[in-house]
Specification:
The protein has about 90 residues and is mostly helical. Helices cover about 40% and strands about 10% of the residues. The chain has a single domain, classed as NAD(P)-binding Rossmann-like Domain (Rossmann fold, 3-Layer(aba) Sandwich).
Length: about 90
């Protein structure tokens, strides 16, 4: 988090925005191809208030927003997408 904020301050005068995305538990195809055991897959995300892992499409909107012209004044921020766990 501190690296993102410091880099954002250093690069702002050059017109470069620096932000970070801190996802919580998200389902990916890598998990079923050896990244997780079957037992862990069933429990994935159950410790979040939403009770499930996020889906990649639910995270994509954060990246699209940060790349859009509407986010031209946003820099040095960390966006948490953690199913309500309160991260980062």
């Amino acid at each position: 988090m501190l690296f993102t904020k410091a880099l954002a301050k250093q690069l702002a005068k050059q017109g470069i925005r620096v932000n970070g995305v801190a996802p919580g538990p998200f389902w990916t195809p890598l998990q079923v191809s050896g990244g997780q055991t079957q037992e862990n897959l069933v429990k994935s995300g159950e410790n979040t208030p939403m009770g499930r892992p996020g889906q990649p499409a639910e995270l994509a909107s954060v990246y699209v927003e940060l790349a859009s012209a509407q986010a031209s004044y946003i820099t040095g921020q960390i966006y948490g997408a953690s199913g309500g766990r309160g991260n980062p």
